């Protein structure tokens, strides 16, 4: 288990910082399994979000982790997998 866990709240915060939110989307709602495309985030917004995650958490995400057809759950899982790898390398 990683010592740092990336959560939906972390993702919401970074999404808002990086790209804001569409006024028709409630990020506080149940968005875990809604694609980023439906949430109103296109690839440029996701690249900015991914860049912020990488800088803040010291990880590197694959381009596939940042496509607009994935869900927040997918991205959170990808971030936590990278955090686990970082922890394993540090041990």
Report on the structure:
- The chain has 91 residues and is mainly alpha-helical.
- The mean pLDDT is 89.
- Helices cover 55% and strands 0% of the residues.
- The chain is elongated.
- The protein contains 4 helices and no strands.
Summed up, what is this model?
Residues 5-83 form the Carrier domain. This is Phosphopantetheine-binding protein. The chain has 91 residues and is an all-alpha fold.
Fold topology:
Blueprint: H1 8-19, H2 36-39, H3 43-57, H4 72-90
Helix pairs in contact: 1-3
Organism: Streptomyces carpinensis
Domain Carrier: 5-83
InterPro entries: ACP-like_sf, PP-bd_ACP
What labels would you give this structure?
91 residues, 55% helix, mainly alpha, Phosphopantetheine-binding protein, PP-bd_ACP, ACP-like_sf
Query: How does the major sheet shape up?
Result: none
User: What structural class do helix, strand and pairing data support?
Assistant: mainly alpha
Low-confidence stretches: none
Q: What is the number of E strands?
A: 0
Mean pLDDT: 89
The proportion of residues in beta strands is under 5%
Cα gyration radius (Å): 13 Å
Q: How much helicity do the residues have?
A: 40-55%
Shape: elongated
Order of helices and strands: HHHH
Give the terminus-to-terminus CA distance. 12 Å
Number of helices: 4
């Amino acid at each position: 288990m990683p010592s740092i866990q990336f959560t939906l709240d972390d993702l919401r915060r970074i999404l808002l910082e990086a790209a804001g939110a569409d006024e028709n989307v409630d990020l506080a709602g149940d968005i875990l399994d809604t694609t980023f495309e439906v949430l109103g985030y296109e690839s440029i917004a996701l690249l900015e979000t991914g860049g912020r995650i990488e800088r803040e958490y010291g990880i590197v995400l694959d381009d596939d982790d940042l496509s607009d057809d994935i869900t927040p759950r997918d991205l959170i899982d990808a971030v936590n997998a990278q955090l686990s790898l970082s922890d394993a390398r540090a041990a």
